[in-house]
Recover the amino acids of this structure.
């Protein structure tokens, strides 16, 4: 009898050991699958595999319970794992065949979700024992971190486009940006600007200003922005607005902005790069790196690993595993007399800011 009890205690002991050390439990009972890369674009966590993007990822909590069924990953960098769909806690990641996801390279992803109802979540993806561990916890956004970074294009010596009546693009961009910042702050978001006066961000250094400290690309990383909205006004013989998104992303945010702006403004019908009326991708083929890439550097370089930044000046930045979801908006053509006077109006600028803020809020919620 004592012997049987002794054996029973040993069995309970071993079981408790495995459940309290579920790391070991998972390591022993699951096959392993090496991932290609993990990165963040906006709020979305992407995990890519060497052979396919079609894998589903299962999240297991520490006791081995599968959480909220399965989360599908695909090729669009803003449609990976949505941290808002997951309860706070710690998880192991397995593929659809229950193979434990691992990486030989060190994974150290750490970011905050956008503020909603005064709340933020910290998301961490690490591989301390080789296999991937995801942790979500409720935490306040640290000082110096922003949900949204607004980039008023040009500034200082660089005035951008000019209209025949004297409108300067850099001023128009700043006017709308300041108004957009107020609108978004009223909605409860933490918002920064790459410039708040008539200066060129990053102008103090010798290199290319955008990639210097405080430059408009560097700030996306320095301020940990989840969304990056660059505002411009166009020239080149056309009319109406154009909204550009990354060719690697879905166009959900860009579509929301187009839909909102279309209620009061006319979308451009420029054919180059048009996906839908007012909605654009603009690409170039990078011969050095042998792949098609986003043309606009504020879209390409602020997205980190996910958008495959190419500039050598920005190599450390573009290889960051956490990037911003970036959009560039050309609000109108100011070399067109009608557009120039329209966009110079304070009322129109307020309206544009209001519509863009509504679109962002709708996308985030
Ligand atoms: Zn511009």
């Amino acid at each position: 009898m004592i012997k049987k009890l002794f054996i029973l205690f040993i069995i309970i002991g071993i079981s408790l050991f495995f459940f309290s050390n579920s790391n070991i439990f998972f390591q022993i009972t699951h096959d392993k699958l090496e991932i290609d890369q993990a990165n963040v674009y906006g709020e979305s966590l992407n995990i890519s595999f060497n052979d396919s993007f079609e894998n589903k990822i299962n999240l297991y909590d520490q006791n081995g319970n599968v959480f909220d069924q399965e989360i599908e990953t695909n090729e669009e960098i803003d449609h990976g794992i949505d941290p808002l769909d997951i309860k706070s806690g710690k998880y192991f990641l397995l593929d659809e065949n229950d193979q434990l996801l691992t990486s030989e390279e060190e994974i150290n992803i750490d970011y905050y979700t956008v503020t909603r109802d005064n709340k933020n979540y910290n998301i961490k993806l690490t591989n301390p024992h080789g296999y991937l561990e995801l942790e979500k916890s409720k935490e306040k956004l640290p000082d110096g971190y922003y949900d949204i970074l607004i980039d008023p294009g040009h500034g200082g010596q660089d005035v951008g486009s000019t209209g025949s009546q004297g409108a300067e693009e850099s001023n128009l961009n700043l006017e709308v940006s300041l108004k957009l910042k107020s609108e978004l702050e009223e909605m409860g978001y933490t918002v920064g600007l790459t410039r708040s006066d008539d200066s060129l961000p990053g102008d103090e250094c010798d290199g290319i200003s955008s990639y210097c400290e405080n430059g408009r690309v560097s700030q996306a990383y320095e301020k940990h922005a989840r969304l990056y909205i660059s505002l411009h006004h166009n020239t080149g013989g056309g009319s109406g607005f154009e909204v550009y998104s990354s060719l690697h992303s879905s166009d959900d945010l860009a579509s929301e902005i187009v839909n909102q702006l279309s209620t009061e403004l006319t979308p451009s019908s420029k054919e180059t790069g048009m996906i839908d009326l007012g909605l654009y991708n603009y690409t170039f083929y990078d011969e050095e790196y042998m792949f098609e890439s986003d043309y606009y550097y504020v879209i390409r370089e602020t997205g980190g690993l996910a958008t495959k930044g190419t500039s050598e000046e920005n190599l450390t930045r573009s290889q960051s595993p956490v990037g911003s979801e970036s959009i560039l908006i050309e609000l109108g053509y100011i070399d067109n007399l009608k557009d120039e006077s329209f966009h110079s109006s304070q009322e129109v600028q307020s309206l544009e800011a209001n519509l863009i803020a509504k679109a962002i809020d709708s996308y985030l919620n």
Summary: The mean pLDDT is 89.
